[in-house]
Design goal:
about 150 residues, mainly alpha, about 10% strand
Length: about 150
């Protein structure tokens, strides 16, 4: 069951990434598990789509935390597993909506269990191939990697 606070964070995140620039920054944060940025202390609507503004909002919302100083800026990272889950669920939902991918999680879980415990990778490969890769074109897959 999803905690109400997590649901609220997910809703806020969804509103913050309403534009392409913020969506791309969020994807980079998820892939790299952090970002080097400055934290802005004063906000205005004129800066709404500035990268440091967006990253600062994620920081103030608790969705990023300071890891260490990196030269004259800060390395901000995803603070914990719960926030990482929020980010990944966001990406999963966006990809599912954009490409109309509907996964049966019970079948997927069974195929992952067979791969993990029996060493049989075929059910997983077949499921992903039939339900994900056949829906996506080569152009869709250009920017995806193992992360």
């Amino acid at each position: 069951m999803v905690d109400d606070n997590v649901r609220a964070d997910y809703g806020r995140l969804n509103r913050l990434v309403a534009n392409e620039a913020n969506r791309e920054v969020l994807e980079d944060i998820i892939i790299e598990e952090g970002i080097v940025a400055d934290i802005i202390t004063r906000f205005s609507f004129d800066m709404m789509y500035d990268e440091d503004y967006f990253v600062s909002l994620l920081f103030y919302m608790g969705l990023l935390t300071i890891d260490k100083q990196y030269r004259t800026r800060l390395l901000l990272k995803i603070p914990n597993f719960m926030v990482k889950t929020i980010f990944w669920e966001y990406i999963e939902k966006k990809i599912s909506e954009e490409y109309q991918i509907n996964l049966d999680l019970n079948v997927l879980r069974k195929s992952i269990e067979e791969m993990a415990y029996e060493g049989d990778i075929e059910p997983y490969i077949e499921y992903i191939n039939n339900h994900v890769f056949k829906v996506l074109s080569n152009c869709d897959l250009i920017n995806y990697d193992e992360k």
